[in-house]
Design a protein that fits this description.
Layout (H helix, E strand, L loop, with lengths): L3 E5 L9 H9 L6 E5 H4 L7 H9 L3 E7 L7 H10 L17 E8 L16 H4 L1 H10 L2 E2 L3 E4 L14 H16 L3
Parallel strand pairs: 1-2, 1-3, 3-4, 4-5, 4-6
Helix pairs in contact: 1-7
Length: about 180
């Protein structure tokens, strides 16, 4: 059985609560997961494309883990997608290196779940916000899986917010790992 590659894209993982806890939980299963923190691997922003492509090829599943940044992914992940998922490797007549790999997002959103709904403040769900990732998976022939999310750990919560506890974060980390273990 091949492992799952989890590409963690958090520019300040040391200050993170959710993503850092997710990484801690993933690292308890080194036989199932490779945790690859690209901001640590490429602090200068220069991505080794051949190395990244080889890493992807060695894994059965591909998970992108990151905090929501202005309703998108952090910039280094966008750069990674642009540079690594190349014509002839990921797509095109000979590009099949991610074909049929399970492809999933794990995101932490500062806002409460209810604001990410058609009736909420943002009028869109996180699935809708990240539909470009689903389209990317479709384009490269990957098998897109439902995203995993943690909501509500905003750095500036309002008085009305139900702020998650450390136990909520720990429970979500366990749920996240169980979801990833079920991918195989």
């Amino acid at each position: 059985m091949k492992k799952t590659l989890v590409i963690v894209t958090h520019p300040h993982i040391d200050q993170s609560v959710v993503n850092k806890r997710w990484v801690e939980e993933l690292e308890k299963y080194p036989d199932q997961f490779t945790v690859h923190q690209i901001y640590q691997a490429y602090p200068d922003g220069v991505i080794d494309v051949a190395k990244e492509q080889a890493l992807v090829e060695e894994h059965e599943n591909l998970v992108f883990q990151f905090p929501v940044y202005w309703f998108n992914c952090p910039p280094l992940l966008k750069q990674w997608l642009d540079e690594v998922l190349t014509y002839g490797w990921a797509y095109g007549s000979t590009g099949d290196k991610v074909k049929n790999k399970k492809f999933m997002l794990a995101v932490s959103a500062g806002g409460q779940e209810h604001i990410y709904s058609e009736q909420g403040e943002y009028k869109l769900t996180l699935d809708q916000v990240f539909s470009s990732f689903q389209l990317t998976a479709l384009y490269v022939g990957a098998d897109y899986q439902p995203l995993h999310a943690f909501y509500g750990l905003d750095t500036n919560p309002s008085e009305d917010d139900d702020v998650p506890t450390h136990q909520d974060v720990a429970n979500n980390a366990i749920e996240y790992v169980q979801k990833l273990l079920a991918l195989s």
